[in-house]
Every structure is written in C-alpha cells, then in structure tokens.
Amino acid sequence: MAKFSPCVRNFSGKPTFMKAPEDQIGISGGVASFVCQATGEPKPRITWMKKGKKVSSQRFEVIEFDDGSGSVLRIQPLRVHRDEAIYECTATNSVGEINTSAKLTVLEDNATVGPSEEKVLGEGTEMINILMKNA
C-alpha cells in the first residue's frame, strides 16, 4: 500500500506576495531598503525594476533570501534626483507573474520638515523611525 506524505505539494500556483515593498522617504547619502517576498509553486523568481528597466548600478544591491522566497533591494548612497522613483518588484513562475511597487522619495541631507513630523526611513529587519525637527 502506498503512503502519501501530507507535506508534499504537487499542484501549481500563481505567485502571491507575502511581503510587498512599502513607500519610503530617505535622506541624501543614506540608505533605502525595499523588501519583496512571494510564494507559489513552482517557487517564483523575484526581479526589481526602476522606470521599466532592471536595476543595475554599483549603488544597487539585491540580497536574495536564503530560502529563495524573496529579496531585499538596497540602495546606497541615496541621490536626490537620481534615485527618486517608483521601484517595482515582480514575482514570476511558470504559472504566472505579479507586480507590486513602492515609491522612494529622497530629501536633501539638510532638508527640514514640519515640527515633530515623523518620517519612516528604511525598511528591512527593523524599521527606523527618526523624529525630524526644524533646525
């Protein structure tokens, strides 16, 4: 008599996002990190795009998760006009493709915002909340 393992999955599934990148505000000269993670069968491949083109620069680093389920797009050092854009994460497998995106806004390092306005700068293993005050 054949035995079946309940852990074995033999179906195909279009990718679905487990973690989508979030909009961010960064400071010129700083770092921004976008996280994208997807599941599906077969396991989807994650790619990053900026303005419709695959990211490619010495300042852009794509760090793959050990289990292959996603990656982190890290941009360093940030440049005000050059890096401000919509960044798109695409998850693709033989069954389908899905996309999601996030906006990066980069402020001058001497920029000021309203009193006690909190901005989220960065993402990844922990969120960095910085309380920005007028000079």
Structure explained in plain terms:
The chain has 135 residues and is mainly β. Helices cover 3% and strands 50% of the residues. The protein is built from 1 helix and 11 strands. Strands 2-9-8-4-5 form a 5-stranded mixed β-sheet. It has a 4-stranded antiparallel β-sheet with strand order 1-3-7-6, with no helix packed on it. β10 and β11 form a beta hairpin. The N and C termini lie far apart (76 Å).
Q: Provide the spatial order of strands within the biggest beta sheet.
A: 2-9-8-4-5
In the predicted model, the low-confidence regions spanning at least 5 consecutive residues are: 4-10, 114-135
What is the 3D shape? elongated
- End-to-end Cα distance, whole Å, is 76 Å
- Major sheet: size, sense and barrel closure? 5 strands, mixed
Number of helices, counting only DSSP H or I runs of 4 residues or more: 1
Tell me, rounded to a whole number, the average pLDDT.
81
